[in-house]
Amino acid sequence: MEGLRKDAARNRARIVDAARESVARGEPLTLNAVARAADVGVGTVYRHFGCVEELEEVLVWDRFDELAEIMQAPGSARLEAVVAAHFALLAEDELFERVTSRAAPALDRTAAMRTSLVDTLALLVAEARSAGRVRAGVDADAVLVLVCGLAHGVRSAGLAPGSASAQTLLQVVLDGLRGGEPEAAPRGPAPRPAT
């Protein structure tokens, strides 16, 4: 990080690495446990991160960057690609979901990243709507609610994001965003062929 002395930058990197390893093992993230794992004093951790939420946010900045890059990719179906990628990132990374659903980020950089992503998503939704690929009344906030809800539901059900069941659910969301009339179900018994 800019402005840190070399030893302070090394300590910060050790703290972040230890926290990342702790999350990968599925352990609860606490600043005291991270200090022990990083072999630094707890005061050193608190000098870099005032609370566990700050550390959590730093751990998922690369996810925000990944999603921002996907949003810039060209193509006529950009919104669909972004929804699918965002779903996969959230379903694979519970910490990313927790940070993105937080009412108020702990760090200014996280808030700026989130605002930038929502603004870009709003442009993609408007672009898709003008091309007739998104139903009226759907905005960026609605897309985020759908994607976050789907990712949470898939993880809660123990489904892998790439599984056939999870992909079917994702397709239902994408089809719902497009709108239009669903195919009418046949009414009454099917006609019998003449004999």
Describe the protein in words:
With 195 residues, the chain is an all-alpha fold. It folds into two domains: 6-52, Orthogonal Bundle (Arc Repressor Mutant, subunit A), CATH 1.10.10; 60-178, Tetracycline Repressor, domain 2 (Orthogonal Bundle), CATH 1.10.357.10. Helices cover 67% and strands 0% of the residues. The chain is built from ten helices and no strands. It has helices at residues 6-24, 31-38, 42-48, 52-59, 61-71, 78-92, 94-100, 108-130, 140-156, 164-178. The longest helix is centred in the middle third of the chain and has 23 residues, at 108-130. It starts with 5 loop residues before the first helix and ends in a 17-residue tail after the last helix.
Short note summarizing the structure:
The chain has 195 residues and is mainly alpha-helical. It is built from 10 helices and no strands.
Mean pLDDT figure:
88
User: How large a portion of the residues is in β-strands, by DSSP E?
Assistant: under 5%
Report how far the terminal alpha carbons are from each other. 80 Å
The biggest beta sheet is recorded as: none
> Any idea what the shape is?
elongated
In N-to-C order, the SSE pattern is HHHHHHHHHH
Q: Can you identify the CATH superfamily of the largest domain?
A: Tetracycline Repressor, domain 2
Keywords: DNA-binding, Transcription, Transcription regulation
Protein name: AcrR family transcriptional regulator
Organism: Cellulomonas cellasea
DNA-binding region: 30-49
